[in-house]
Specification:
The protein contains 18 helices and 13 strands. The chain has 581 residues and is an alpha+beta fold. Helix 3 crosses helix 5, helix 8 runs antiparallel to helix 9 and helix 8 packs across helix 14. The N terminus is likely disordered. InterPro entries: SusD_RagB_dom (IPR012944), TPR-like_helical_dom_sf (IPR011990).
Length: 581
């Protein structure tokens, strides 16, 4: 009986139905060093660490967090793409049912990661007890990784799984018990875990960061449907743990914001923890790079197959927060985090009046593949990129590749093959708002230059914790304790540290309150998986935004997948559906 439950909880969805992706799960190398039949320690932890990127896949946990918040929307593009059973439409409008595939795939990947961490723990513990120092260090990392995955479970489904032996039935904890369990797991390793193996592996700084997150959100986790009561004690713990990281001197803010999301970001001094995609662990795709981008856009001239998917766009509501903050000034000019212009269009080509795909044969500029880099940040208006000829090859010129205004070649809209991709603000579920071109796009992550084909095998780490978040958590804890001056100093330190482009370095704020801090977290951490939790903690998850009017507080948590409940049905009362579903 117990084995059946274990399969139900940790083995559902070994083959997942991913849109625009392969149907089979990638095989993760047995060793972090890539030596094939790995030695015990590396072979134990590689599957657990390798699973982290699968958890944060765009059609798993990342997509669930992103689309459920007010910062992103994924319509049924042109009535042809990205419907996927309605899972993204339901997630955005908060009308999710227990059978929603996005919820189901997210649950499967998180629980699978918990299972892999536990399997590693069972291999490593006897080795550590026998005096193997390397195994002991890896054991601490796996305990922390299991706690981190359980914190994702608590954040999204309001429960955690407590289990020390894989053959036994998990104990399900909620509320205070769940918080205490996760806290005890982190505290059991924080003083003994490594301090230098990151960012691809969990370090002491990452554990401090997890403890800060746990204490910051504990009031929500304790009472997910009520009004959070932020205790002074927990805010003090947030300040303590963030101080440990900041005062360590081991990390510093990146002067260029978008360097945080480049090929070489593993060595960026701001990065504390991420999903390492380099080397032999480099079996992941650039989905955080290409998911949002236009399907007609090719960001790598050396790779004719590298394109976008016309996936999610930012909502008009989230864009408006930038406009409101900077008044009459274009956010692209006022804030280095909003936009980075890599493509300098020659002045004589910028005016497209009277220019159409039918008469623009000479309306291009030349750029080598090595020098070509698309713009980054929030992408608006007409985009430029390489163009293919009738044979499917990119058109060349003396200087490399011809860079044209991009023609709308995807979808079935009125602009297909007759107009340029012109990203407009409107994006919604209406026939007009769901056209492939609609919505401003997010190009935060670089298309990896180490990839053999642009889209696959990215070497860019997925950023899961960085120093700016640490400062913003400390600012929030200070503000909730009444230390406005301290909070303002931390927020301004983050804002004014993006100095690589001085003309776009945001100016220091003159005052701070919870609304401004919520806004600032949105500006700094947009599309990194924080917004849903932030909205809940700051009291904005029941607000109305594009295509979302639901105000049911029970929808702060996602439903437990019906397949998981059905799989546990032979133990009455073991896995009960969350309220409101």
């Amino acid at each position: 009986m117990k084995n059946k439950i274990i399969i139900a909880l940790f083995g559902i969805g070994l083959l997942a139905n991913f849109s625009c992706t392969d149907l089979e799960e990638d095989v993760i190398d047995e060793s972090l060093e890539g030596s094939g039949q790995a030695e015990a320690v590396s072979g134990a932890i590689a599957p657990a660490y390798g699973q982290v990127a699968w958890v944060w896949r765009h059609t798993n946990y990342y997509g669930l967090q992103l689309i459920a918040a007010d910062e992103a929307i994924l319509p049924y593009r042109g009535g042809t793409d990205w419907y996927d059973g309605g899972r993204f439409l339901e997630t955005h409008s908060h009308t999710i049912a227990p059978g929603n595939d996005l919820v189901g795939s997210s649950w499967n990947e998180v629980t699978r990661n918990i299972s892999r961490a536990l399997s590693a723990i069972e291999v490593l513990r006897p080795l550590a007890e026998a005096g193997d120092a390397e195994a002991e260090g890896a054991l601490y990392e796996m305990i922390a990784l299991r706690a981190y995955m359980n914190m994702l479970m608590l954040d999204s489904w309001g429960l955690v799984f407590k289990k020390e032996v894989s053959s036994e039935l998990s104990e399900i904890l909620r509320g205070e018990e769940a918080i205490d369990y996760i806290k005890s797991e982190f505290l059991s390793v924080v003083d003994v875990i490594n301090t230098s193996r990151g960012p691809g592996r969990i370090t002491q700084a990452a554990v401090w960061g997890f403890l800060a997150r746990l204490n910051l959100n504990a009031a929500v986790y304790r009472d997910p449907y009520g009004t959070p009561n932020f205790s002074t004690e927990e805010m003090d713990r947030v300040i303590e743990y963030t101080n440990n990281i900041i005062n360590s001197g081991a990390f510093s803010l990146s002067p260029e914001y978008f360097d945080l999301f480049n090929d070489d970001n593993n060595s960026n001094p701001e990065l504390i923890f991420g999903a390492d995609q380099r080397g032999v662990m480099n079996n992941e795709h650039s989905r955080w790079a290409y998911w949002s981008l236009a399907g007609s856009w090719f960001p790598r001239p050396e790779h004719p197959s590298a394109d976008g998917t016309d996936g999610p766009a930012i909502t008009s509501d989230f864009y408006q927060t930038w406009v409101d903050a900077y008044g009459g000034e274009d956010p692209a000019e006022a804030d280095a985090r909003f936009f980075l212009e890599n493509q300098i269009i020659p002045a004589e080509l910028q005016d497209l009046t009277g220019v159409t795909p039918e008469n623009d044969e000479d309306h291009y500029y030349c750029m080598s593949a090595e020098d070509f880099e698309i713009n980054r940040g929030i992408i608006r208006g007409v985009i430029w990129g390489p163009r293919k000829d009738e044979s499917g090859n990119f058109m060349t010129c003396d200087g490399g590749f011809r860079i044209y205004p991009v023609i709308q070649t995807k979808g079935n809209g009125p602009d297909k093959n007759v107009d340029y991709v012109n990203h407009t603000l409107q994006v919604d579920f209406t026939n007009e708002g769901r056209l492939h071109r609609n919505g401003y796009r997010v190009s935060k992550y670089q298309f990896s230059r180490t990839s053999p084909n642009g889209n696959n095998y990215s070497s860019v780490d997925l950023v899961l914790m960085r120093l700016a978040e640490i400062y913003l958590m400390r600012a929030e804890a200070k503000l909730r304790k009444g230390d406005n001056a301290g909070a303002l100093a931390d927020v301004n330190f983050v804002r004014t540290s993006r100095t690589a482009r001085p003309d776009q370095t945001p100016e220091a704020l003159g005052a701070i309150d919870l609304d401004i801090l919520f806004r600032e977290r949105g500006f700094e951490l947009y599309w990194e998986g924080f917004r849903r939790s932030d909205q809940i903690r700051f009291g904005h998850y029941e607000d109305t935004w594009t295509e979302k009017t639901d105000t049911d507080v029970h929808h702060r948590l996602f439903p437990i997948p019906q397949k998981a409940i059905d799989g546990a049905s032979n133990v009455p009362g073991y896995l009960e559906q969350n309220e409101g579903y």
